[in-house]
């Protein structure tokens, strides 16, 4: 049995018994771990008072070869993220960000850059400074893009995914083919459920993000463009997952065919 130490973010938790929990922790070096925290809710347990969702900490755990659950032996809370629980917009954004992790990556599959992106997202959302709606949309757009890049599902933005040829840069409206994973010159129509109409400004914003892959590249973008681009990626992620993601609904109520 191997003992590990790592940074982690709690992305899910359930009660196991009156005194114990099962938790899903996104770690930096060991990926997503499903853990059993025996006695975590006891007063003198080495778990900083229990493991709460969207909190950051340092873990010590034992990986058992004959068990799907990792045994969590220690949890030292480093960031409780109190402000996420005092503002509804921040809370919805944080819950969506962490909800994507167990849906999109496999257990024990390390993604250090994705961990860093999730941590930065939560730190921005939980910052003491006033977090405006445009800051939330900008951060979530960058986070969703980083997630798609890290799992190998980056959308194709420059070639027509139907014909593998360069897309006409002068179009005002494009189509995004969810099943094929990228843009097409044909903007589609109401009879094509897998093709969504996308404005040129949305495509330009995503291409800028594709070029730089940084949060700073989105500075100066309009709130409308950030929201539309974020909703497009949320729709695409929903297609990849194959089921509705209800945590996205409060953030992108405009999720429809025209993005």
Give a short overview.
This protein is an alpha+beta fold and 259 residues long.
Helix-strand layout with pairing:
Layout: E1 2-15, E2 21-27, E3 31-37, E4 56-63, E5 70-79, H1 88-104, H2 112-125, H3 133-150, E6 173-177, E7 182-184, E8 195-199, H4 200-212, H5 223-241
Parallel strand pairs: 3-5
Antiparallel strand pairs: 1-2, 1-4, 2-3, 4-5, 6-7, 6-8
Molecular shape:
elongated
CATH class of the largest domain: Mainly Alpha
Strand order of the largest sheet: 1-2-3-5-4
Radius of gyration: 20 Å
Structural class: alpha+beta
The proportion of residues in beta strands is 15-25%
CATH topology of the largest domain, which one? de novo design (two linked rop proteins)
Element pattern in H and E: EEEEEHHHEEEHH
Q: Which second-level CATH architecture of the largest domain applies?
A: Up-down Bundle
Low-confidence stretches: none
Biggest β-sheet, characterized? 5 strands, mixed, barrel
Task: Give a structural overview.
The chain is an alpha+beta fold. The chain folds into two domains: 2-82, OB fold (Dihydrolipoamide Acetyltransferase, E2P), CATH 2.40.50.140; 132-259, de novo design (two linked rop proteins) (Up-down Bundle), CATH 1.20.1440.120. Helices cover 31% and strands 23% of the residues. The protein is built from five helices and eight strands, in the order βββββαααβββαα. It has helices spanning 88-104, 112-125, 133-150, 200-212, 223-241, and strands at 2-15, 21-27, 31-37, 56-63, 70-79, 173-177, 182-184, 195-199. The strands form two sheets. A five-stranded mixed barrel has the order 1-2-3-5-4. Helix 3 (133-150) packs parallel to helix 5 (223-241). The longest helix has 19 residues, at 223-241. The chain is elongated and about 65 Å long. 36% of the residues are buried. The mean pLDDT is 91.
């Amino acid at each position: 049995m191997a003992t590990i130490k790592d940074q982690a973010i709690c992305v899910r938790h359930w009660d196991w018994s009156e005194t114990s929990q099962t938790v899903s922790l996104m770690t930096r070096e060991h990926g997503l771990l499903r853990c059993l925290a025996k006695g975590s809710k006891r007063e003198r347990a080495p778990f900083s008072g229990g493991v709460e969702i969207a909190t950051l900490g340092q873990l010590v755990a034992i990986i058992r070869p004959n068990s799907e659950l990792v045994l969590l032996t220690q949890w030292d809370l480093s960031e409780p993220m109190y402000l996420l629980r005092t503002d509804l917009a921040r809370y919805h954004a944080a819950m969506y960000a962490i909800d994507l992790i167990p849906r999109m990556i496999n257990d024990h599959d390390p993604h250090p850059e994705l961990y860093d992106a999730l941590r930065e997202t939560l730190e921005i959302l939980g910052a003491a400074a006033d977090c405006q709606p445009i800051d939330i949309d900008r951060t979530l757009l960058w986070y969703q893009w980083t997630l798609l890049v890290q799992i190998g599902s980056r959308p194709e933005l420059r070639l027509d995914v139907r014909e593998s040829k360069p897309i006409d840069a002068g179009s005002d409206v494009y189509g995004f083919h969810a099943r094929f994973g990228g843009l097409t010159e044909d903007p589609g129509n109401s009879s094509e459920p897998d093709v969504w109409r996308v404005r040129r400004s949305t495509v330009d914003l995503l291409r800028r993000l594709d070029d730089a892959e940084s949060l700073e590249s989105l500075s100066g973008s309009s709130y409308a463009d950030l929201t539309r681009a974020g909703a497009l990626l949320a729709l695409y992620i929903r297609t990849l997952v194959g089921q509705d993601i209800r945590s996205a609904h409060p953030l992108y109520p405009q999720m429809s065919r025209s993005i």
